[in-house]
Amino acid sequence: MELILDTGNVIEIEDLYTHLCIDGVTTNPSIVSKEGKDFESLIKEIDSIVGRYIPIHAQVISTKFEDMVEEALYISNLRENMYVKIPVTKDGLRAIKELKKQGVKITATAIFTAHQGFLAAKAGADYVAPYVNRIDNISGDGVSVVSDLVNIIDTYNFNSKVVAASFKNAQQVLDLMKVGVHSVTVPADICKAMMAHPLTNWSVDKFIEDWSNVFGEGTTTNKK
Ligand code: G3P
Protein backbone atom coordinates (compact mmCIF):
# COMPACT_ATOMS: atom_id res chain seq x y z
CA MET A 1 0.00 0.00 0.00
CA GLU A 2 1.33 3.38 -0.96
CA LEU A 3 1.71 6.31 1.42
CA ILE A 4 1.76 9.66 -0.38
CA LEU A 5 2.13 13.15 1.10
CA ASP A 6 -0.62 15.65 0.25
CA THR A 7 1.32 18.87 0.69
CA GLY A 8 3.46 21.36 -1.17
CA ASN A 9 5.35 22.47 1.92
CA VAL A 10 8.98 21.59 1.28
CA ILE A 11 9.95 21.65 4.96
CA GLU A 12 7.25 19.07 5.75
CA ILE A 13 8.14 17.02 2.68
CA GLU A 14 11.85 16.97 3.57
CA ASP A 15 11.16 16.02 7.19
CA LEU A 16 8.72 13.20 6.41
CA TYR A 17 10.58 11.93 3.35
CA THR A 18 13.77 11.66 5.44
CA HIS A 19 12.12 9.65 8.22
CA LEU A 20 9.48 7.53 6.45
CA CYS A 21 8.99 5.49 3.26
CA ILE A 22 7.04 7.89 1.11
CA ASP A 23 5.75 6.88 -2.32
CA GLY A 24 4.98 10.28 -3.78
CA VAL A 25 3.77 13.83 -3.30
CA THR A 26 0.39 15.16 -4.38
CA THR A 27 -0.50 18.79 -4.81
CA ASN A 28 -3.57 20.63 -6.02
CA PRO A 29 -4.16 24.32 -6.89
CA SER A 30 -5.15 25.11 -3.27
CA ILE A 31 -2.05 23.41 -1.88
CA VAL A 32 0.24 25.23 -4.34
CA SER A 33 -1.44 28.59 -3.65
CA LYS A 34 -0.88 28.11 0.08
CA GLU A 35 2.89 28.02 -0.49
CA GLY A 36 2.77 31.26 -2.53
CA LYS A 37 5.66 30.11 -4.74
CA ASP A 38 5.98 29.98 -8.51
CA PHE A 39 4.43 26.65 -9.63
CA GLU A 40 7.33 25.39 -11.72
CA SER A 41 9.92 26.35 -9.07
CA LEU A 42 7.91 24.55 -6.40
CA ILE A 43 7.74 21.33 -8.44
CA LYS A 44 11.50 21.52 -9.03
CA GLU A 45 12.09 22.14 -5.31
CA ILE A 46 10.02 19.07 -4.39
CA ASP A 47 11.88 17.10 -7.06
CA SER A 48 15.21 18.05 -5.52
CA ILE A 49 14.05 16.58 -2.18
CA VAL A 50 12.44 13.33 -3.36
CA GLY A 51 14.54 12.63 -6.45
CA ARG A 52 13.49 11.80 -9.97
CA TYR A 53 11.96 8.35 -9.29
CA ILE A 54 9.32 9.44 -6.77
CA PRO A 55 6.05 10.51 -8.42
CA ILE A 56 4.84 14.09 -8.02
CA HIS A 57 1.20 14.82 -8.87
CA ALA A 58 0.10 18.31 -9.95
CA GLN A 59 -3.24 19.51 -11.21
CA VAL A 60 -4.41 21.47 -14.24
CA ILE A 61 -6.39 24.68 -13.71
CA SER A 62 -7.96 24.66 -17.20
CA THR A 63 -11.52 23.42 -17.54
CA LYS A 64 -12.00 23.09 -21.34
CA PHE A 65 -10.87 19.91 -23.07
CA GLU A 66 -8.30 21.49 -25.44
CA ASP A 67 -6.84 23.70 -22.69
CA MET A 68 -6.67 20.80 -20.25
CA VAL A 69 -4.72 18.72 -22.77
CA GLU A 70 -2.30 21.57 -23.46
CA GLU A 71 -1.78 22.32 -19.77
CA ALA A 72 -1.42 18.62 -18.93
CA LEU A 73 1.34 18.23 -21.53
CA TYR A 74 3.17 21.20 -20.00
CA ILE A 75 2.88 19.74 -16.46
CA SER A 76 3.83 16.27 -17.63
CA ASN A 77 7.06 17.56 -19.16
CA LEU A 78 8.22 19.34 -16.00
CA ARG A 79 10.08 16.24 -14.81
CA GLU A 80 10.37 12.53 -15.45
CA ASN A 81 7.88 11.00 -13.04
CA MET A 82 5.07 13.52 -13.22
CA TYR A 83 1.40 12.63 -12.80
CA VAL A 84 -1.10 15.16 -14.09
CA LYS A 85 -4.22 15.52 -11.97
CA ILE A 86 -7.39 16.02 -13.98
CA PRO A 87 -10.77 16.60 -12.29
CA VAL A 88 -13.43 14.17 -13.47
CA THR A 89 -15.69 16.68 -15.20
CA LYS A 90 -17.13 15.81 -18.62
CA ASP A 91 -14.23 17.61 -20.35
CA GLY A 92 -11.84 16.11 -17.83
CA LEU A 93 -12.85 12.54 -18.67
CA ARG A 94 -12.37 13.31 -22.35
CA ALA A 95 -8.96 14.82 -21.61
CA ILE A 96 -7.94 11.73 -19.62
CA LYS A 97 -8.90 9.50 -22.57
CA GLU A 98 -6.90 11.67 -24.99
CA LEU A 99 -3.86 12.12 -22.74
CA LYS A 100 -3.57 8.40 -22.12
CA LYS A 101 -3.26 7.89 -25.88
CA GLN A 102 -0.30 10.28 -25.69
CA GLY A 103 1.27 8.34 -22.83
CA VAL A 104 0.73 10.95 -20.11
CA LYS A 105 0.52 9.69 -16.51
CA ILE A 106 -2.84 10.68 -15.06
CA THR A 107 -4.41 11.00 -11.62
CA ALA A 108 -8.15 11.53 -11.93
CA THR A 109 -9.23 13.77 -9.09
CA ALA A 110 -12.21 15.42 -7.36
CA ILE A 111 -14.01 12.05 -7.29
CA PHE A 112 -17.12 11.89 -5.11
CA THR A 113 -18.81 8.70 -6.32
CA ALA A 114 -17.75 5.19 -7.29
CA HIS A 115 -19.37 5.82 -10.68
CA GLN A 116 -17.00 8.72 -11.37
CA GLY A 117 -14.05 6.60 -10.26
CA PHE A 118 -15.13 3.78 -12.57
CA LEU A 119 -15.44 6.17 -15.55
CA ALA A 120 -11.98 7.62 -14.86
CA ALA A 121 -10.44 4.14 -14.60
CA LYS A 122 -12.20 3.18 -17.83
CA ALA A 123 -10.73 6.30 -19.50
CA GLY A 124 -7.28 5.03 -18.49
CA ALA A 125 -6.37 7.03 -15.38
CA ASP A 126 -3.38 5.56 -13.53
CA TYR A 127 -4.75 6.77 -10.19
CA VAL A 128 -8.30 7.64 -9.20
CA ALA A 129 -8.64 9.96 -6.20
CA PRO A 130 -11.88 9.92 -4.18
CA TYR A 131 -12.24 12.68 -1.57
CA VAL A 132 -13.03 10.91 1.70
CA ASN A 133 -13.58 13.80 4.10
CA ARG A 134 -15.38 16.01 1.58
CA ILE A 135 -17.82 13.12 1.01
CA ASP A 136 -18.28 12.72 4.78
CA ASN A 137 -18.96 16.47 5.01
CA ILE A 138 -21.96 16.23 2.67
CA SER A 139 -23.51 13.51 4.81
CA GLY A 140 -22.02 10.80 2.62
CA ASP A 141 -19.86 7.86 3.66
CA GLY A 142 -16.36 8.43 2.28
CA VAL A 143 -15.01 5.06 3.42
CA SER A 144 -17.91 3.24 1.79
CA VAL A 145 -17.45 5.10 -1.55
CA VAL A 146 -13.73 4.25 -1.56
CA SER A 147 -14.46 0.65 -0.57
CA ASP A 148 -16.90 0.29 -3.51
CA LEU A 149 -14.37 1.82 -5.88
CA VAL A 150 -11.54 -0.47 -4.73
CA ASN A 151 -13.89 -3.40 -5.24
CA ILE A 152 -14.75 -2.31 -8.79
CA ILE A 153 -11.09 -1.68 -9.75
CA ASP A 154 -9.96 -5.04 -8.33
CA THR A 155 -12.90 -7.07 -9.62
CA TYR A 156 -12.48 -5.90 -13.22
CA ASN A 157 -8.67 -5.68 -13.09
CA PHE A 158 -8.51 -2.05 -14.14
CA ASN A 159 -5.00 -0.75 -14.57
CA SER A 160 -5.69 2.00 -12.00
CA LYS A 161 -4.94 2.47 -8.33
CA VAL A 162 -7.33 4.07 -5.89
CA VAL A 163 -5.51 6.88 -4.08
CA ALA A 164 -7.85 8.02 -1.33
CA ALA A 165 -7.50 11.75 -0.63
CA SER A 166 -9.01 14.43 1.59
CA PHE A 167 -8.46 13.24 5.14
CA LYS A 168 -9.17 14.98 8.39
CA ASN A 169 -8.05 12.27 10.80
CA ALA A 170 -5.92 9.15 11.03
CA GLN A 171 -8.92 6.90 11.76
CA GLN A 172 -10.25 7.55 8.22
CA VAL A 173 -6.90 6.30 6.89
CA LEU A 174 -7.05 3.17 9.04
CA ASP A 175 -10.63 2.44 7.96
CA LEU A 176 -9.47 2.53 4.34
CA MET A 177 -6.46 0.29 4.95
CA LYS A 178 -8.94 -2.27 6.29
CA VAL A 179 -10.87 -2.28 3.00
CA GLY A 180 -7.73 -2.74 0.89
CA VAL A 181 -7.22 0.76 -0.51
CA HIS A 182 -4.21 0.81 -2.86
CA SER A 183 -2.87 4.16 -1.82
CA VAL A 184 -3.59 7.11 0.47
CA THR A 185 -2.42 10.70 0.21
CA VAL A 186 -2.32 12.41 3.57
CA PRO A 187 -1.41 15.88 4.83
CA ALA A 188 1.66 16.15 7.08
CA ASP A 189 -0.33 16.50 10.31
CA ILE A 190 -2.13 13.20 9.70
CA CYS A 191 1.12 11.49 8.74
CA LYS A 192 2.61 12.70 12.05
CA ALA A 193 -0.49 11.54 13.94
CA MET A 194 -0.02 8.05 12.41
CA MET A 195 3.54 8.01 13.75
CA ALA A 196 2.97 9.26 17.24
CA HIS A 197 1.87 7.72 20.52
CA PRO A 198 2.69 9.26 23.92
CA LEU A 199 3.30 5.81 25.41
CA THR A 200 6.05 5.14 22.85
CA ASN A 201 8.01 8.13 24.17
CA TRP A 202 7.16 7.22 27.76
CA SER A 203 8.41 3.66 27.16
CA VAL A 204 11.69 4.86 25.67
CA ASP A 205 12.26 7.18 28.65
CA LYS A 206 11.55 4.30 31.05
CA PHE A 207 14.00 1.97 29.25
CA ILE A 208 16.72 4.60 29.52
CA GLU A 209 15.95 5.24 33.18
CA ASP A 210 16.08 1.51 34.06
CA TRP A 211 19.32 1.07 32.11
CA SER A 212 21.06 4.06 33.63
CA ASN A 213 20.03 3.05 37.18
CA VAL A 214 22.20 -0.04 36.78
CA PHE A 215 24.83 0.81 34.17
CA GLY A 216 24.95 4.59 34.35
CA GLU A 217 24.77 6.82 31.32
CA GLY A 218 25.70 5.37 27.95
CA THR A 219 24.42 2.76 25.50
CA THR A 220 24.89 -0.97 24.84
CA THR A 221 28.21 -0.11 23.21
CA ASN A 222 29.20 1.29 26.57
CA LYS A 223 30.06 4.59 25.03
CA LYS A 224 28.97 7.66 26.89
O1 G3P B 1 -5.53 16.81 -2.94
C1 G3P B 1 -6.92 16.67 -2.92
C2 G3P B 1 -7.49 16.43 -1.56
O2 G3P B 1 -6.58 15.76 -0.75
C3 G3P B 1 -8.09 17.62 -0.90
O3 G3P B 1 -8.13 17.49 0.47
O4 G3P B 1 -8.45 18.34 2.75
O5 G3P B 1 -8.76 19.90 0.81
O6 G3P B 1 -10.43 18.10 1.26
P1 G3P B 1 -8.99 18.51 1.37
Describe the structure.
The structure is a single chain. By secondary structure, the chain is α/β, with parallel strands linked by helices. It contains 11 helices and 8 strands. It has a single domain (2-196), classed as TIM Barrel (Alpha-Beta Barrel), CATH 3.20.20. α1 (10-19) packs parallel to α3, α4 (65-76) packs across α5 and α6 (114-123) runs parallel beside α8. Bound molecules: SN-glycerol-3-phosphate (G3P). SN-glycerol-3-phosphate binds at residues 6, 26, 28, 131, 133-134, 165-166, 185.
What's the short version?
This protein is α/β, with parallel strands linked by helices and 224 residues long. The protein has a single domain (2-196), classed as TIM Barrel (Alpha-Beta Barrel).
H/E series, N to C? EHEHHEHEHEHEHHEHEHH
Model regions low in confidence, pLDDT < 50 over at least 5 residues:
none
Name the CATH class.
Alpha Beta
Radius of gyration: 20 Å
Largest sheet: 8 strands, parallel, barrel
Q: Give the domain tally.
A: 1
CATH architectural designation: Alpha-Beta Barrel
Tally of strands: 8
The shape, in one word, is: globular
Structural class: alpha/beta
List bound small molecules: SN-glycerol-3-phosphate
Instruction: Give me the CATH fold name.
Output: TIM Barrel
- The CA-CA distance between the termini, in Å, is 40 Å
Helical fraction:
40-55%
